[in-house]
Write a structure and sequence with these properties.
The protein is an alpha/beta fold and 331 residues long. The protein has two domains: 199 residues, P-loop containing nucleotide triphosphate hydrolases (Rossmann fold), CATH 3.40.50.300; 118 residues, CobW-like, C-terminal domain (Hypothetical Protein Yjia, Chain: A,domain 2, 2-Layer Sandwich). 33% of the residues lie in helices and 23% in strands. The protein has twelve helices and 14 strands. The longest helix is centred in the N-terminal third of the chain and has 17 residues. The protein starts with 7 loop residues before the first strand and ends with a strand.
Length: 331
């Protein structure tokens, strides 16, 4: 999906019970929701969220994808639902959607959904991942850690929900919990539901690339943040080979990659980013856009030595360190 077009596709993720439907209903009740289509995915056969949303969409188009988590079993159904919404709008003589919102099951991984969306060609959208996090859910059980980590690491924005019911200490614990999965973002924290919703659904300023290179360690014992830099001139094929091997080695443990690198023969910097193992096509950015260079990797259950242990790392001239300061040397 084209990141430069006007229409927006919002992937609304978040753990089970973290307030996704409430946040979305608050938005759909506003005039700013005009031109929005909604798709709801439930993991169970009883489409509870779809039923709730159908009473609060103010006549906005709604499609349901029940009985299956969209990230693992219903990629084709998602594209069909988008097609149907767009076709219905065209049949009614309405202008194209300003945005589509997919409310995912709380069990969904964002990466495979983005992979499915890459195959959609009927209308072009820029994609944004918005995640919710319950102010009272600072310690998900170990079985949910991989899912929560994938959702929060992928997000461009994280909303602390139910903050109006929490005291300052509880809200601060939630902010710290989000940082333990993705220290590169500042969560949206408002006790007022209207202000929280407005901030969540406003595209807002994007975090600067320099922020991605800041020395911000994750504090969750299973989540690590790494900085990857080039020790000398490098080429795109060598970087690409290393990224391919990284994906093969880490699989679902790879949560996020983002950053800028310089490669031989290209006057511009290359923007590299992934959600999970799903990589966007590298984009060229003018060298003066940001002085930051290098890649940030957020991964689960790994270490710096594992990342540089790949033969392709040495070929690309890479150095890797955890942002807590521990470096892994290339041999």
């Amino acid at each position: 999906m084209n990141p430069d077009c006007g229409a927006e596709f919002i992937l609304l993720t978040g753990p089970l019970g973290s307030g996704k439907t409430t946040l979305l209903l608050d938005f759909l009740a506003t005039p700013g929701a005009a031109g929005t289509g909604v798709i709801v995915n439930e993991a169970g056969a009883i489409d509870v969220d779809g039923a709730v949303l159908s009473t609060g969409t103010n006549g906005l188009p709604l499609a349901n994808l029940p009985n299956g988590c969209i990230c693992c079993s219903q990629g084709d159904n998602l594209l069909s639902a988008i097609d149907a919404l767009i076709a219905e709008r065209a049949t009614n003589g309405q202008t194209p959607f300003r945005r589509l919102v997919l409310e995912c099951s709380g069990l969904a991984y964002p990466g495979p959904i983005l992979r499915s969306l890459a195959n959609f060609r009927q209308q072009t959208f820029r994609t944004r991942i918005l995640s919710t996090f319950d102010a009272f859910g600072a310690s998900p059980d170990d079985a949910m850690v991989p899912i929560v980590a994938a959702q929060l690491a992928a997000a461009q924005a994280v909303v602390i929900t139910k903050a109006e019911m929490a005291d300052a200490a509880t809200r601060n614990r939630a902010v710290s919990a989000v940082a333990s999965y993705n220290p590169l973002l500042e969560p949206i924290v408002f006790s007022d539901r209207v202000a929280r919703m407005a901030a969540a659904f406003s595209p807002g300023p994007k975090a600067s690339l320099s922020r991605f290179m800041a020395d911000q360690p994750a504090s969750h014992p299973r989540i690590k943040v790494f900085q990857v830099g080039c020790t000398g001139p490098t080429t795109w094929p060598s970087i690409s080979d290393w990224l391919d091997s990284l994906v093969d080695m880490l699989g679902g443990r790879l949560l996020r990659v983002k950053g800028l690198i310089d490669v031989d023969g290209c006057p511009d910097a290359l923007l590299i980013e992934s959600v999970g193992t799903t990589f966007s096509t590298p984009r060229r950015l003018a060298a003066h856009v940001s002085p930051a260079r290098g890649l940030i990797i957020i991964a689960r259950d790994t270490n710096a030595e594992e990342l540089v242990g790949l033969p392709e790392a040495a070929a690309a001239g890479l150095a890797v360190r955890e942002t807590s300061g521990r470096a892994a040397n290339l041999h």
